[in-house]
Amino acid sequence: MDISNAPLECKFRSYKFGDDKGKLLADNAKAECMRNIERKKDGRGQEASLEAYNFWKDHSQMTAAKRSSSKTVNCVPNGFGGMRCN
Hints:
single chain
């Protein structure tokens, strides 16, 4: 199975540069997605697997949460009753 030509619904990515675990999980989810498409085409009614997708999704969500919580916002009064943040 050639996963390099995966359809759009089978494209997963890792967001952080150097996130080897994220890349591996994305590759596994892509391969699983392609197998699910093949299973659907063969018409034998096999249930789709979502195990690799769920591992990728969990990792992706944790990575995104860490990335957003690590940002520091500095706010100061703007003199007009509001705040200016950067």
